[in-house]
Amino acid sequence: MKSLSHIINLRTILIMAPMLLIAGCVEKQAERTYTLVWEDEFDADGAPDDTKWVFDLGGGGWGNAELQTYTSNPQNVKVEDGALMITAVNNGGSFTSARIKTQGKFEQAYGRFEARIKLPWGPGIWPAFWMLGADIETNPWPQCGEIDIMEYRGQQPNLVHGSVHGPGYSGGAAITKSFGFANDRFDLEYHTFAVEWGEDFIAYYVDDNLYQEINPDDLTGEWVFDHPFFIILNVAVGGSYVGFPTPDTPFPQTMYVDWVRVYREVL
Amino acid sequence: MEKNKYSFSLIALFAAIMLVWTVSCTRDFDELELAKFPAIPEVFIDGFSAGLNYAAFGGSKVTAFDVDNEVRYSGSSSMKIEIPDAGDPLGAYAGGVYFTSVARDLSSYDALTFWAKASKAATVDLVGFGNDLGESKYLVSLRGMKVNSNWKKYIIPIPDPGRLTAEKGMFYYSEGPEDGTGYTLWIDEVKFEKLGTIAHKRPMILNGNNAAESAVNGLTLQVGGLGMAVNLPTGIDQTVEIAPAWFSFASSNANVAEVDSQGKVKVLAEGSTKITATSGGKEATGSLTVTSSGDFTHAPQPAAVPEDVISIFSNAYTNVPVDFYNGYWEPYQTTLSADFEVNNDNVLYYTNFNFVGIQFTSPPVDASEMTHLHMDIWIPNAVAPGSRLQVKIVDMGPDGSLNGTDPSIIYEIPGPLASKSWISADISLAGLGSKTKLAQIILENLGTGLTGFFLDNVYLYKGGGGTVTGPEVAAPEPPARSASDVVSLFSGAYTNLTGTDFNPNWGQSTVVSTEDIAGNSTLKYANFNYQGTVLASQQDLTGMQFLHIDMWTADATAVGVTPINASGSPAESLVSLTPIVAGQWNSYDIPLTAFTSSGMSLNQVFQMKFDGQAGTTPSNIYLDNIYFYKTGGGATEPTVAAPTPPARDAASVVSLFSGAYTNLTGTDFNPNWGQSTVVTTVDIAGNSTLKYANFNYQGTALSSQQDLTGMQFLHIDMWTADATVVGVTPINASGSPAESLVSLTPIVAGQWNSYDIPLTSFTSSGMSLNQVFQMKFDGQAGQNPSTIYLDNIYFYSTGPAPTEPAAAAPTPPARTATDVISLFSNAYANVAVSSWRTDWSVAVLEEVNIAGNAAKKYSGLDYVGIETTPTTIDASGMTHVHIDVWSADITSFGLKLVDFGADGSYAGGDDVEHQVNFAAPAKGVWVSYDIPLSNFTGLATKAHLAQYILVGQPAGATTIWIDNFYFYKTSGGTGGGPAAAAPTPPARNVGDVVSFFSNAYANVTVDSWSAVWDDSDVADLTVAGDAVKKYTFTNFAGIDFSNHKLNVSAMTHFHLDIWTPDDVVAGDVLTIKCVDFGGGSTEATNFILTVVHTVTGSIPALEKGKWISIDLPVTAFSGTLTRSDLAQIVLTSNLDELYIDNLYFYK
Q: Looking at the complex, does the CB of residue A250 fall below 8 Å from at least one CB of chain B?
């Protein structure tokens, strides 16, 4: 078990501050101490570890008019060289990609959820690291809740977005905030995306920079983030959120995930 | 939750100031060392930045640029550029450079940015930076920038900013009218920036392609197609053209060729080298492989004296003014130039050749004193058979301008074209109607095998003196004659015998060529002593009366001619052509009795000879219209009996109609198949002969099915006075196709023609001969109706069937080592095989030698195991397995492949295997199996192949010989499919189309796209969102809708789009056979279209890598066009892969 003593380093924030584009303010959260409870370091080449991940397969737009068909094909998803690679492929105008989740394998309420990711690029590419309420089968979305730790539009390679969806604040009305670089991009190096989630807060981080904290008071509806959620990693192509790929969108496009780690707070 | 915001911001500000201060300190220190230029980023914000100048390009409208104080993106003004209308007297386009007199250091920026809009949507030809009106060393250009009436920000990346420490070229543009109309372009806020958000720089040379170029020592080549793709902050990829200085070039073998900093390649020595490049530390995509064939051989030194020459291109004479040596005629020309100089000898080099024009209009050349055009041609690559090169010489004509009606002559360089030797052509201008204003020489590729050539010593000269002179007018036109009255060797008036070799090597000094004389192809014997001609087949000329020859000569004094017979004595008898009048065409009609009076025969003429040695030797003669003929009034019925067949062993013959053998009994020679033919037997010189009068087609029904797989030939004797095309086919009761029409050729009217058709001519279509129950003759493709007489219709094999192979197995084609894994062949390196007969096999193994070639013989075969253990074979990258098998007695052959799985050893739970079987293989011949590994459907893994089991029937009683057992991958490769969808068919009314497969129309029901009876595979794929079908051929694929048969009689046209990844070479073929059941349950009639590697009439050519639309009237098909009960379409091809789309009939 690894343990993380999570202390926001003052010097780091001072140097990073001039780089913040959208999140002009950096907020300090109370220090919390976490202990690692679940991880996938993606060190074994091949298919994703089936003790930890299951596939979402198929097409149909996934509620967002997305273009891709999700497969478990190694062309679309595999572990190689210490990273999970989810690749969107253009097969002459029809797209395949992959979406994996921990549903039924690992679900948790509260804690720190983080992943180290290098993102793909190009208009219409929509990768995400996010969570859904584990009761979604009996408690349909948006009532089950959705926490988007990281979403990104390939036509804005310097911006990422953190959101929550719930009853009364879903889809286009989600509670959301963005974090960006003035002169860097998320597709050049790995960055760490995290939320710290407690009974009355969800705090969003990029590389340990806090850029958003959502509390029950911020919502326009009921706070539903009080039960276990599972993790999802995917790369979508096109759809109502991101728009559609153009002839200039380069394919294939790969999201690299170095690791995913989940912590529980040590009280 | 903003409680801590302000305090943190203050601290952040303080930290930022600290950073700036620190950086400033460092910069001061650097300046002491490097004496940098100023790093001013602004180019044009609201006016010219410090030290900026503007200069318009030559030929452009110099007043095009102005500063606009009203229209601007921000601030107080913008740059306004007025692109002129076409024909503006002040200039044809707008273009200019914004440059500084003192260089700037731009190394701290990563892009030039600006905002632009225009008075209408337009595409700006070029914008960029790095143009300093001088070397423009670091030029970067964006070609085809789209603008519209809204302001938009444009970004031109700096490929490798570290190099831009002293740049004067800040901005440039060039744009002409769009569709003849000018417009206004505004540009504002032009500056260099450090964006930090442009990424994924991908430099490229040769536009990212891996190209190859043939060369000789001393030649220089320029690496082109230099560019860089970058990803903009919008996530979009953009490619800019960049100058050579942005790259570092490298040659993998600098001994063969070196490359300089400008990408100029100088070839030094024989061999091959690969030119690659890097930019900004990144490897560029694309490469140029240069292969030198060694030292350059200079073209022959021209001999003509300068006074008699007008030179277009040579170092021996002074050349006249030439507009260009390569017109780059868009859009169809592909030819590029790589002209070079070796030891002060300039040579033109055309690459990627389809056609090219040399033009000299200023002034045009007055060639009225000239007689010939000379040129020397060198082809550096190996030349594929069938390569052809044509020269067209064009005069402006009386109107003094080049247009579609100019006088011209066309000359084809005599083939076969040789590579790596100078080919000298001397083209007579005699046929050119006007030659006072010569203006163009156009070289055109008539075949497919020629990719490029060197050209030197292009000049016009005056003949005479030592120069060969020739006729200026064509030989007299022969009279029209009935085809049956003529056997023609060389004439434009009649159908010539095919395959005649006009230049066999009999030791002669003669140089044979064909020359175009006033539009007429003429045979030329230069340096003539004697000259032979070899016919493709023996000709019985006993029915002919005369030999006709037209001859022109300036110097020959005695010329004799004789046909040569293959039998009898004497075999030849020289007859003199008299009289010979120099300088004009002489026509001779020699009675054939002049030859036969010597005792020679003319029943098996196989050669001809001309001999000039009795007179001036050598001399030059021109020949035309060489043919044998008879003077009409031919018989309409044979007067002699068909030749008597030789005695044959009864077991070697299956006879239908012959007096020499025992015929099958009960044969119906006149079943009613709806024909017009009247069938009778007539007595011809005491011999019963079958007569088909009013013949269109005619069937014959056997009383019982015959297994003819043991036979080798079908023999037929035929006599006709008028039939021109007659096909014949046996018809099999099973398999598909059930029949395959083979033409009887040649048909010589008025005499008995004997045909011995190898049965492989039928079986090559895929048809079987194991249950032959009918025969058919079909004359509809020629004279119809006609009358034919038939005799001696029988199948036979030559003597006892062979029991062992006499010839070696076919030699496999050359392949790259990585494309083949061979177990047993002389053609490739073989891998280790641990056993050629495992101890569990049921067979006897002998190592044998067949015609000098090693083979393995398995006798008493039931099955035999071959093993590669413990080192297994990884065939996962291969596409096919090949094996050649010979057997005299096999009835079924099977090949099983066994993969031992990841554990690499027997059992272990991961072994997989699959067996492919072939029923009724051909006997007594080498059968080459090329089996797609995808046919081994049970073979889920192929990375550890360990066992190969050959299975034969009758079990334990067959003997096979095998050779050339190997795995290979096809050059087409997997995944090499079309990138674009096939063309979308036009909208049609529902009743106007019957579609089998298209997204444009409603499709009918098809039972199977690869019927159970075919041997090929089909896959459904999507290309650019469009469904296509991919066929992987063994031999043929059946599209079967026999449960949903169609009446498409109302449809007049057929359409099919095809695409193949295969390299298309001569001999490649696709046949499309449409099968009509005629109301029955099996094939009654068919019509066939054959698509080959060249265009044939209205039928397009097979081509690699592009969609070919076959869109033809049904009448373009041959066969019976009945289509009221259409049931199948059979695709037969020797291509490996074919994609199809839009299969439909329409009207």
A: yes
A18 and B197 within 8 Å at the Cβ level: the answer is no
> Cα–Cα distance between B696 and B778 in angstroms, integer?
6
- Strands B1085-1092 and B1069-1076 come out as antiparallel
Higher pLDDT, B609 or B984: B609
Instruction: Check B2 against A27: CB less than 8 A apart.
Output: yes
* Cβ-nearest to B979 among A13, A92, A121: A92
H or E element, residue B18: helix B5-34
Q: How far is CA B798 from CA B141, B712, B715, in A?
A: 74, 7, 12
Q: Does residue B631 surpass a pLDDT of 80?
A: no
Task: Select which of A151, A196, A222, A265 is catalytic.
Answer: A151
A189 assigned to active site:
no
* CB < 8 Å to B237, chain A: 122, 248-250
Structure tokens at B84: 């002129």
- CA dihedral of A193, A198, A199, A203, whole degrees rounded to 10: -50
Distance CA B595, CA B609 (A): 13
Our CA angle for B216, B219, B225, nearest 5°, is 110
| Nearest residue in B to A25, CA atom | B5
Q: Assign 3-state DSSP to chain A and report helix, strand, coil percentages, each to 5.
A: 5, 45, 50
**Which residues 136-195 in chain A show a CB within 8 A of chain B?**
153-158, 181-185, 187-188
How many residues are present in chain B? 1147
At residue B1126, the pLDDT reads 93
In the residue annotation, A137 being an active-site residue is answered as no
Q: φ and ψ at B251, to 5 degrees? A: -115, 130
pLDDT of residue B927: 83
Cβ of A26 and B195 within 8 Å? no
Out of A66, A107, A146, A196, pick the active-site residue: A146
Please name every residue paired with B1064 in a beta bridge, in sequence order, or none if there are none: none
C-alpha B457/C-alpha B441 separation (Å) is 13
CA distance A7 to B955: 81
Identity of the residue in B1, B15, B235 whose CB atom sits nearest the CB atom of A27: B1
Contact across the interface for A122 and B235, Cβ inside 8 Å: yes
pLDDT digits (tens, 9 = 90+) for B8-43: 333 333 333 333 333 333 333 333 444 578 999 999
| Overall average pLDDT of the B295-306 stretch | 84
Mean pLDDT across B683-692: 89
Interface of B with A (CB under 8 A): 1-5, 8-9, 11-12, 15-16, 19, 194-197, 199-200, 231, 233-238, 979, 981, 1022-1026
Closest CA to B1142 of B1111, B1097, B1104: B1111
Q: Which helix (H) or strand (E) holds B594?
A: helix B593-596
DSSP string, A22-54: S---------EEEEEEEEE---S-BS--TTT-E
Instruction: State how far the Cα of B607 lies from the Cα of B563, in Å rounded to an integer.
Output: 6
CA dist., res. B43 & res. B192, Å (int): 8
Rounded to whole angstroms, the Cα distance separating B152 from B584 reads 77
CB B977 within 8 A of CB B1023: yes
What's chain B's average pLDDT? 87
A179 forms beta bridges with A160
pTM strictly above 0.80: no
Q: Which residues pair with B859 in a beta bridge?
A: B844
Give chain A positions within 8 Å (CB) of B233. 157-158, 185
Which residue among A25, A92, A250 places its CB closest to the CB of B1025? A92
CA separation for the pair B965, B942 (Å, rounded): 16
Average pLDDT over residues B1076-1086: 88
| Nearest chain B residue to A187, by CA | B199
Q: Is the pLDDT of residue A22 over 50?
A: no
Pairing of strands B713-720, B678-684: unpaired
